[in-house]
Structure formats: structure tokens, C-alpha cells
Amino acid sequence: MGKRSKECAEEEVDEEEQPTKKLQTDPPEYEDPALDNDEGEPTEFSVSIGGLSFETKRKALRKACAKFGEVVTVRRWVRGAPRRADVSFSSAEEMEAAIQGMEGKILQLQSALDEMRILLNHEQRVSQELKAQVRDERRRREMLQREMQDKLELQDHEMKSLLAELETAKAALQQKKKEFKGPPEETSEKPSKVHSGPTQRECERELLAALLEHATKQATACPAVKKEATALQQLRSELEAAQGKVSEAQEAAEELRQQLQQEKLSRFEVEHLLELQRECLLREFHQRKACVADFANFLRLLGQRYPELASCSEMRVISRKARTELQHLNELQREIDGRTVKVKATPKEEQAAGKKKGKGKGKGKGKGKGKGKGKGKGGGKGRGG
To answer: CA 323 to CA 330: how far, in whole Å?
Structure first.
């Protein structure tokens, strides 16, 4: 490296020779320059380190950079707000190792700084949330205090109004007492007048009770009244019997309702099971039908490609088996459709069908692939295909 200008960079004086100075907020532009040692000039393998604080010393820089290699000189720049230093090494390998080590340390410090920044942001968010909660709590407490104050004022007002009413009532009572007070002669006459009313009412009540009892005795002594009483008694007994029958009928209706509910549930379960069975059979039917169709198509293509095999007896037997299988599948489809139709029949239709079967008499025979038997109340039997 070339020589540096004296205005920009100067060497520092050895710390043993130069006394320590206090930290200044505004550093001077120049310091007393001196080489780190008297052995030679700085080499071309130097590393510039920036962003140093005012408290950073040459010994600390030399000690930090010594683990990367032999440090020749350490020069510290004075001018400029961010202070920096140039550290010279004896070889390029040591310089590269120092650069890589410092870059790794810088990355570590940056990652640590990012983590601290994230933690700081998190703590700030938490503190903001806590502050918001404190504000809400304070606002809620103020509202509650205001409501309690309003309630206390309202209760105080009500108490005052009640006390005022009580005072007015006491005053009115005292006034009434004063009004009722009079000469002793008047008070002696009043009790007789007061007691005369209840005695007269009691006498009238006793007289009316006696008249009512006499009228009932006369009415019961008449024969027509006796007949009406017996008829009324019979009507009452019939009414009680009818009420008992009605209660029995209600119980029977409730039992029938429960039975119908159970039958509906069982019917629903049976329909569900039959639907599942139908779906399984249809799935099997479609699978077998597709298999038969694929096999028939394969045989057709095989016969077209190899005509000499078309007349083979085995091919005819196989095609005949495929036809019978297809017929069996068609019959299975018809049987599934018939089951679904039977399941969808209503209970009234089933009862009507049972009555029709019971009325028939006679016997019949038929040939077919399916067989069925039916019995009815009339004693008739039938067999058909």
C-alpha cells in the first residue's frame, strides 16, 4: 500500500509512552501519530476495520486479530465520525483468514441483533397489549364507579322521598287522631252503634240458612224430586263409567300409537337394509354385466381376427355360457325391481292384498324358474311360477 496522507491517517503513539486520555464526545481531528512498533512499515496485506468506538485501543485490536495470524502494524484513523483502523498481516493467507473470521463474526452479531430486535418487537407488542388492557380496565372501572355513584344518588333520592312520605303520613295520622278525639259522652255512645251492625248481619245470615234448610227438606220430601234424584244418580254413574271407558280408550290409543311408531321404525330399518341389499346387488349386477360384455367383445374380436376359431365348439360353449349368465343377470334385475316395489307398498295395500289372498280357494300349478306360495284366512292355497 502507498503512503497515507498526514491529513487523513496518522500513527498512534505507544500507550506505554503516551498517558491515557479521557473519552471525549467530540474527538479531535488528529492524534499524535506513531508506529505500532519500530520494526518496519505496514505491509500490503492489510485489512480495514470500520465502525470502531472511541474506546477501542490498539492492544485490543492486536489481541483480536492475533488469532488469525501475525500482526505487523495497527493503524487507527482519527478523522471521520465512524472511526476505523488498518491491520497489516505478514501474508495473504492470514489476511483472508482474518477477513473470513471477521465476516463470520459480523454475521453472528447481525443474527444476534436480529433476534434481539425480534424479541424487542415482541416485548413492545406485549407491552402495548398490556397497556391497552390496563386502559380498558381503567375505563371499565371508571364506568362501574360512575354507575355505582348514579345508583347511590338514585337510592339516596328514593330514601329522601320515602322519608318525606313517612313524615307526611305521620302528620296525617296525628291529625286524624286529633280529629277522632272528642268529649267522653260521644265516645260512650259510639260502641253501641258500632256493635249493632255485626249482630244484625249475623242474625240475617242465620235466618237465611234456616230458610234454605227448610226448603231443601220440603224438596226432598216430594216423590217427583226423589225420582229426579235417582235419575241424576244414574246419570252420574253412567258418566263415571263413560269417563272410565274414555280413559281406557285413551290408553289403548296411546299403546296403538306406540306400536305404530315401533312399526314405522322397524319398517324404516327394513327399507334401509333392503336398499343397501339392492345397491349391493345392483353393483354386482353391473360388474358382472360389464365383465360379460367385455368377454363377449373379446370373443367377437377374437373371432374376427382368427376365423378358424369361430367354428370351434369351445367358443360356442363359452358364448352360450355368456348368454345364460346375461339372462341370469336380467332375472336378478327384475327380482330387485320387484322387491323395491313390495317395499314401497303401504300398510293398507298390504292388508287389502292379504284379504284378497284369503278369499281365494283352489289349487294351481305352473312351470317356471321361480316358485311362490301364499296362504290366506279363507283356507285357500296357490302355487305359481
So the answer is: 11
User: Could you tell me which residue, 36 or 142, shows the higher pLDDT?
Assistant: 142
**Contact between residue 42 and residue 72 where contact means Cβ atoms under 8 Å apart:** yes
Give residues with Cβ within 8 angstroms of 358, minimum separation 6.
376, 377, 378, 380
Q: What is the pLDDT of residues 206-237, one digit of tens each?
A: 777 777 776 676 666 666 656 666 776 777 77
SS3 at position 377: coil
Q: What is residue 371's predicted lDDT score, i.e. its pLDDT?
A: 41
300 vs 70: which has the higher pLDDT: 300
Beta strand residue intervals within the chain, DSSP E: 46-52, 71-76, 83-89, 372-375, 381-384
Take residue 59 and report the three cell numbers written for it. Answer: 492492544
Average model confidence (pLDDT) across the chain: 69
With 0-12 / 13-18 / 19 or more C-beta atoms within 10 angstroms meaning exposed / middle / buried, residue 68 is buried
Q: What is the DSSP letter of 373?
A: E
The pLDDT, as a whole number, for residue 81 is 53
CB contact set of 58 (below 8 Å; sequence gap of 6+): 12, 15, 36, 74, 76, 85
Q: What are phi and psi of 47, to 5 degrees?
A: -125, 130
Q: Residue type at 185?
A: E
Strands 83-89 and 46-52: antiparallel
CA distances 307 to 164, 300, 311, 312, 335, Å, are: 125, 10, 8, 10, 39
- What are 148-172's pLDDT values in tens digits? 999 999 999 988 888 888 888 888 8
d(CA 306, CA 345): 54
| CA neighbor of 363 nearest in space, from 385, 383, 340 | 383
Is the pLDDT reported for residue 261 higher than 80?
yes
360389464: which residue's cell?
290
H helix or E strand, kind and range, residue 102: helix 92-180
Distance CA 252, CA 249 (A): 5
Taken in order 287, 291, 297, 301, the sign of the CA dihedral is positive
